[in-house]
């Protein structure tokens, strides 16, 4: 007995950013074909609503120039080719055609682009309206647990959870995402589905995630945010560095500077098993120990009777000066002229290279992105599987992950659009 729920020409599995655009693209390029978007939760775009702190950082101006420099993974070269097919200007035009007006963020130099409403809901509403306009069948609360491929007929049968029914399709686009924010539906289930077809899965690890690093500073400065220079070391070798916001937390360190370094750290900790990992914090970003020494020697000559803590309070916020001095066993009453050369050097080193051991990354519930997924070398430039004709991939399920700042959503839009063409 045929227990098919329904037959569609094209089925997109996963109703996130990439899935919604893939379904829209499929109908746009193949108006004569039936398209279904299958989502296991009750709503589409749940992760999209929390992106960019609810403002939806859609893309980034820097995507115009060598976008591949902002991406990692086995699919990095694949991403480069995809962005040639659907680039920054295409992304902007796509959303403009849907009525979503975009504008670069005015503060800072991060080149982030948001909807002018500053609301992710604006983007989701526009995508849902276009799905309806294009006549895409949106099927929610339906979870696909297995896909069978009939090689002779070149068709697919999708087995559903908690149901004897199934869905058949001529083409399948898998956009099930990674493993971040599992409470919102991304639990890595798509990886298990494609393993059946012999695809290699690069072990998923967290990216854009805070560090666990209990230390004296975090205990005192919990909740404080500062712009710092951050250098990441593995086995005493410098492996990454940047300047940006660092937030001291009860468990360690967070903030944009930490999140930007976290992919490198996650590879070392969670994939390579390295345990000798640390960061060095510079409280005077852009300056080194020699620069600071010149300033300190000037203060030593002009203000010898001033306490060290008062000198530091002129350039360091909060109770940081006192914390640093306590760490170095320097009394708060100590005057600048009373410091020995060794103490001065120790102080300046702590201010420009304060060492904190990283013990772990936080987990999937706090990571923004997944590094890992379907091996990019096994996927054609059309995003069709090299192993299974008619099976396509898009979005975070592929081993492609971008820097923070709208690059991962850019990948979702571009890969979704290209996959939907079914070329």
Describe this structure in words.
β1, α1 and β2 form a beta-alpha-beta unit. The mean pLDDT is 93. This protein has 2 domains: 256 residues, FAD/NAD(P)-binding domain; 153 residues, Helicase, Ruva Protein, domain 3, CATH 1.10.8. Strands 1, 2, 7, 8, 9, 10 and 20 form a 7-stranded mixed beta sheet that branches. A 7-stranded antiparallel beta sheet has the order 17-16-13-14-15-12-18. It is built from 12 helices and 21 strands. The longest helix is centred in the middle third of the chain and has 16 residues.
| Sheet with the most strands, sense and barrel status | 7 strands, mixed
Question: What is the CATH architecture term of the largest domain?
Answer: 3-Layer(bba) Sandwich
Count of β-strands: 21
User: What's the mean pLDDT score?
Assistant: 93
Q: Low-confidence parts, pLDDT < 50 over ≥5 residues?
A: none
What is this structure's SSE topology?
Elements: E1 4-13, H1 17-29, E2 35-38, E3 59-60, E4 71-72, H2 76-85, H3 88-97, E5 102-104, E6 112-115, H4 120-134, E7 137-139, E8 144-150, E9 155-160, E10 166-174, H5 189-195, E11 201-207, E12 211-212, H6 216-220, E13 225-234, E14 237-248, E15 252-254, H7 256-271, E16 277-282, H8 289-302, H9 308-313, H10 320-327, H11 341-352, E17 354-358, E18 360-361, E19 369-374, E20 391-393, E21 401-402, H12 407-421
């Amino acid at each position: 007995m045929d227990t098919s729920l329904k037959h569609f020409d094209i089925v997109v599995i996963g109703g996130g950013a990439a899935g919604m655009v893939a379904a829209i693209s499929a109908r746009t390029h193949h108006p004569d074909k039936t398209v279904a978007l299958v989502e296991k939760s009750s709503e589409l775009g749940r992760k999209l609503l929390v992106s960019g702190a609810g403002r939806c950082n859609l893309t980034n101006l820097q995507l115009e120039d060598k976008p591949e420099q902002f991406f990692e993974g086995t699919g990095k070269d694949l991403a480069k080719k995809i962005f040639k097919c659907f680039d920054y200007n295409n992304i902007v035009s796509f959303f403009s055609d849907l009525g979503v007006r975009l504008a670069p963020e005015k503060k800072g130099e991060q080149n982030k682009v948001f909807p002018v409403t500053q609301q992710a809901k604006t983007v989701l509403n526009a995508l849902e309206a276009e799905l309806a306009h294009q006549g895409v069948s949106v099927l929610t609360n339906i979870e696909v647990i297995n896909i069978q491929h009939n090689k002779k007929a070149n068709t697919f049968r999708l087995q559903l959870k908690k149901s004897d029914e199934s869905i058949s399709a001529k083409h399948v686009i898998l956009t099930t995402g990674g493993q971040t924010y599992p409470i919102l539906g991304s639990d890595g289930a798509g990886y298990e589905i494609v393993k059946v077809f012999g695809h290699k899965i690069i072990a998923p690890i967290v990216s854009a995630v805070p560090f666990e690093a209990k230390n004296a500073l975090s205990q005192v400065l919990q909740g404080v945010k500062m712009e710092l220079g951050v250098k990441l070391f593995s086995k005493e070798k410098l492996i990454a560095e940047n300047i940006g916001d660092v937030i001291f937390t009860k468990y360690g360190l967070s903030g944009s500077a930490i999140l930007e370094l976290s992919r490198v750290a996650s590879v070392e900790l969670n994939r390579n098993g390295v345990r000798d990992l640390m960061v060095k914090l510079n409280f005077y970003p852009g300056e080194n120990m020699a620069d600071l020494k010149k300033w300190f020697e000037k203060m030593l000559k002009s203000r010898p009777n001033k306490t060290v803590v008062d000198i530091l309070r002129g350039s360091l916020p909060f109770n940081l000066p006192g914390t640093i001095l306590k760490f170095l066993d320097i009394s708060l009453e100590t005057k600048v002229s009373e410091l020995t050369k060794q103490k001065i050097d120790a102080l300046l080193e702590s201010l420009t290279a304060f060492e904190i051991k990283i013990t772990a990354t936080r987990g999937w519930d706090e990571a923004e992105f997944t590094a890992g997924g379907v091996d990019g070398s096994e996927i054609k430039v059309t995003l069709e599987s090299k192993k299974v004709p008619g099976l396509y991939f898009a979005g975070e399920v592929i081993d492609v992950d971008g820097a923070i700042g709208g690059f991962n959503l850019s990948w979702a839009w571009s890969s979704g659009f290209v996959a939907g063409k079914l070329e």
